[in-house]
Amino acid sequence: MTVSSSRSWGANRRNLKGKVAVVTGASRGIGEAIAAALAAEGCRLVLAARSKDRLEEVAGMLRVRYGVEVVAAPTDVGDEGQARKLIETAAGHFGSVDILVNNAGIGIYGAVDELHLNDLRHVFEVNLFGPLAALQAAVPVMRRNGGGAIVNVSSIVGRFPQPLGGGYTATKFALQGASGAARAELKRDNIDVILVCPGLTDTEFSQHSRISVPGAEHRQGERHSLGQGVEPARVGRRTVAAIKRGEREVYITLFDRALVWFALHFPGLFQWALVYVTRYRRKRFDESGARKNRRVSPN
Ligand SMILES: NC(=O)c1ccc[n+]([C@@H]2O[C@H](COP(=O)([O-])OP(=O)(O)OC[C@H]3O[C@@H](n4cnc5c(N)ncnc54)[C@H](OP(=O)(O)O)[C@@H]3O)[C@@H](O)[C@H]2O)c1
What we know:
- There is one protein chain.
- With about 300 residues, the chain is an alpha/beta fold.
- The protein has one domain (about 10-285): Rossmann fold (3-Layer(aba) Sandwich), CATH 3.40.50.
- The protein has nine helices and ten strands.
- It has helices at about 10, 30-40, 50-65, 80-95, 115-145, 165-185, 230-245, 255-265, 265-285; strands at about 20-25, 45-50, 70, 100, 110, 150-155, 190-195, 210, 220, 250.
- A seven-stranded parallel β-sheet has the order 3-2-1-4-6-7-10, with helices on both faces. It has a three-stranded mixed β-sheet with strand order 5-8-9.
- Helix 2 packs parallel to helix 3 (about 50-65) and helix 8 crosses helix 9 (about 265-285).
- The structure holds NADP nicotinamide-adenine-dinucleotide phosphate.
């Protein structure tokens, strides 16, 4: 067991070499990219997701490419006990946890008046309760070590509502609220709480999202994004920069930042525009066959 040297986090977060980072949802997409960006800084890593094989593959690739120690810890963060155990495993193996990246997340699409509430409960378990359980387990460990950073990966739609994505939006609004409170509460412990709000990013996110409409319970989504997103690697690099600077809230592109600014400063106009967005998204949603297909697929 190696003991980390993070005695005063604020003073040495600029150099992440040797720090211990736990990244959830690290088997692909944004989580994999954040893990790679942390490995490039010399962090020792604990990677979590449900798919063991893919996780081992990513861990092996990072060990070879960056020469850092990487542990694959298959975990379902939708299970509170497993989310807490993940932190125990990391602290047990490395002697500390300096950085926790709560990235694992899933989407749920459907009109608010039609959403299956059990589907939505499951998405809340993964997107909100899992991250909060991991945070609660990590804080005492970070306190003992003089501080650390907790990164919660939200979304720009954690700042404004997304028609036909109201359930997903609700999980990210909730994560935003809890993160803001935790940031203030944990300041005295030298624990940074950073909210990362990506916009559209080129991952498999939409394929793994749930479509929750009458007659299509638990159905997983197809690719139905509004266009080409940014590379996950860009989100990874930006997240690491935010950890090193102890930033509060992070946007990836100027467009994302401008959209959020507009939504917050012109709520009436934004709500009016959303009516038109709803029509467009409903058409795209119906075209994807979500309403016709009655297949049930577990996720
Ligand atoms: N892509 C976008 O446009 C976008 C935009 C804004 C925000 N985000 C946010 O970014 C985060 C990452 O999304 P992504 O785009 O990288 O999606 P993704 O490609 O679908 O990756 C999601 C990751 O989370 C893991 N995961 C899902 N459910 C899990 C569970 N119950 N327990 C543990 N791990 C779980 C997945 O692995 P397993 O399936 O193996 O468990 C995978 O590693 C999410 O929080 C998402 O809300 C994405």
